[in-house]
Design brief:
Blueprint (H helix, E strand, L loop, with lengths): L1 H23 L14 E5 L2 E4 H19 L7 H15 L2 H11 L7 H17 L5 H10 L4 H24 L4 H9 L3 E9 L6 H19 L4 H13 L14 E4 L5 H7 L11 E2 L4 E7 L3 H6 L1 H23 L2 E3 L1 H5 L17 H6 L1 H23 L1
Antiparallel strand pairs: 1-2, 1-7, 3-4, 3-6, 5-6
Helix pairs in contact: 1-16, 2-3, 4-7, 4-13, 5-7, 7-13
């Protein structure tokens, strides 16, 4: 029996050596560690995990301390702000997108999407971190992000593309559809000046708004359409404008329903070359001017304009999914004190690294070893 044990130990050592050699060069999906993987809330079929809450919480605490000082969390009002922000942020468009993905049998952690993410991460590690995975994990730690959660971030961009492609296939949009909507007035073309908050604080916000309002007043005061259009071109070329999406000056073309309600209320009620009120968006403050539809541009860009319909359908589906979801905290989530969250292993899944790293080969090799041991043991008994 002792000889049998020695043989088994020797074979097991070979397995571990082989697993190490094969696993070192493999890019493997890493599971979240046990605490990171615990579910803090659900939204439909989507499980929202501790790692995501930890990322949102720790980064927002950092912001709160910059705003209110190091003792910020001593304030009851600030703690309430933290609580509201974190749980509100968990119920995001990304959550709705993942929920929608399940309906299309798509998952950011499975299949082709997961494979693409693994390739992206391998490129990042080999490129930006010169093959040093520990340095990559260190960068995630500084951002309070697990590698498992980082994969979710990469995966959602691929998920969005896949769903948009499926939306395009389900729609019957052709060249005639675009031309008909333009004829009905259901397309808008506009140019804009975007003014951003350069400092990121309240003073910068006020300065950005003041600049945008000044540009809007100056343009609106010009009575002649041609002169106003030329002034808009100069404003777009000025240092105040931070929008780089319309460098060729064709303007932005969108079908009705694509933009926010506020933007559409302004733009579709403007005449050509008329300037609307200053509009707030995620990037800053926009001064908009409606432009006439250029027929030649439309004919040359029909493919791109048709794609807008699939994006519109994608936005509609994500919005509908978001509105249908409801966040429900788990008992574990209810008990969490956001001001004192326990830390987590950002690399995660270290106990599963061997099996994941070598894939089925390790399992087959281990099965073979068990078979050999069994045969030796059986032969010994028969003799």
């Amino acid at each position: 029996m002792k000889r049998l044990v020695r043989i088994f130990c020797a074979l097991l050592a070979l397995l571990l050596l082989a697993a190490t050699l094969v696993g070192c060069g493999a890019t493997r999906p890493v599971r979240a560690s046990s605490r990171a993987n615990r579910v803090v809330a659900t939204a439909g079929k989507v499980k929202l995990r501790y790692e995501e809450l930890y990322y949102i919480t720790m980064n927002y605490i950092k912001e709160l301390k910059l705003t209110y000082g190091e003792d910020a969390l001593q304030s009851e009002a600030v703690r309430a702000e933290l609580e509201s922000f974190v749980w509100g942020k968990l119920m995001s468009e990304e959550t709705a997108l993942i929920s929608l993905g399940y309906k299309y049998d798509l998952d950011v952690y499975k299949g082709e999407i997961a494979e693409r993410v693994s390739e992206d991460i391998a490129e990042i590690i080999n490129g930006e971190f010169e093959g040093d995975r520990e340095a990559y994990i260190k960068s995630l730690e500084e951002a309070f992000m697990t590698e498992h959660y980082a994969r979710k971030g990469f995966g959602t961009s691929y998920l969005a593309s896949e769903i948009e492609l499926l939306c395009a296939k389900s729609l019957n949009v052709d060249d005639a559809t675009v031309r008909a909507d333009i004829a009905k007035g259901d397309f808008v073309c506009f140019r804009l000046v975007l003014v951003k908050n350069e400092t990121g604080d309240a003073a910068g916000e006020a300065a950005a708004l003041a600049t945008a309002e000044r540009i809007q007043r100056e343009l609106a005061a010009i009575p002649d359409d041609v002169a106003r259009r030329n002034a808009m071109t100069k404003a777009i070329a000025s240092a105040d404008n931070k929008d780089l999406g319309d460098t060729l000056g064709y303007g932005y073309y969108y079908p009705r329903g694509y933009l926010s309600a506020e933007y559409e209320d302004v733009l579709f009620n403007l005449k050509s070359y008329e300037v609307g009120k200053v509009l707030k968006n995620d990037e800053g403050y926009a001064v908009v001017m409606r432009m006439p539809i250029d027929g030649d541009y439309v004919e040359e860009h029909l493919y791109d304009l048709k794609r807008l319909y699939s994006k519109l359908e994608y936005n509609r589906q994500v919005t509908a999914e978001f509105e249908a979801l409801q966040l429900e905290k788990t008992r574990f989530g209810e008990k969490l004190d956001l001001t004192a969250l326990p830390p987590i292993d950002m690399d995660g899944g270290s106990t599963t690294m061997l099996v994941v790293g070598v894939g089925g080969g390790a399992i087959l090799l281990f099965s073979a070893i068990l078979g050999i041991v069994y045969k030796i043991h059986r032969k010994k008994k028969l003799n």
